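Dear Dr. K.,

Following up on our conversation at the group meeting, I've run the structure prediction for Tryptophan-rich sensory protein from Sporosarcina contaminans. I'm pasting the input sequence below exactly as I used it, so you can double-check it against your construct before we proceed with anything downstream. Let me know if the numbering doesn't match what you have in your notebook.
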Amino acid sequence: MSRIIMMTLSLLVLIILHVIATFFSLNGQTTSEIANRLPLLFIPANYVFLLWIVIYAMLFVWIPSFAKEQKFINLRMYGFFTAIALSIVWIFCWHYGYLSLSIAAKILLLCILFSVYFSYHKTDNRISGRMPYSLLIGWNFLTLISTVSYYLLLHDWSGFGLSAPLWTVIYLTISTAFALHFMFHYHDFMMNFVFIWTFIGIAFKNGTDELFVTAAALFLTAVLIAFMIFRENHSKKRAVLSK
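The predicted structure tokens came back this morning:
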């Protein structure tokens, strides 16, 4: 019981800090105000960040249920605490301008999330199982790319002569490949919803100002949806044939 209380309290601390940083200010600025300082193309519309409500709600469900399973309980508990700590570190680094450290924190966070994610069975898509971590991995992978893109833009990176819209499409393509990998090899549809939700938000954010980026985001959204349908139908056929 004490573990559950400590985990719940640590999650509440992160949520409070997240709310302060998003809606009020931390170091005199909100999270979006910092992001909007530069013409960053790989960033979704503000409504996309409502996904955090779903993630936090799932984590509150996951906390009391994870202890009921005997396998990997310490790995999952310490992984959770470490992920909370690294999320807090990222927020402070982002708001205080330590972008290199924020990227390092995000990479370490993804490593921790993967360690918990892979402790579950490949087909475990329960809320009390790996589902919250599917959302967290998908979202943090996208925000890692966004943070790296912001860092490069801030330091006037030449992009090897490629334009910012083209690099954004490259980022979108890499993200799509990442999502498809987890859909086909881990049957993880929930992670794909994160990418679909974010890609639509990126298209909405760029609108007609960056038609190339908008078109690519919508096209890759359609690709993800099409492959999700294909994967689901394929799984149903295999289930029928195995009977």
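Two things stood out to me. The two ends are 43 Å apart (CA to CA). The chain is about 75% helix and 0% strand.

Best regards,
J.T.
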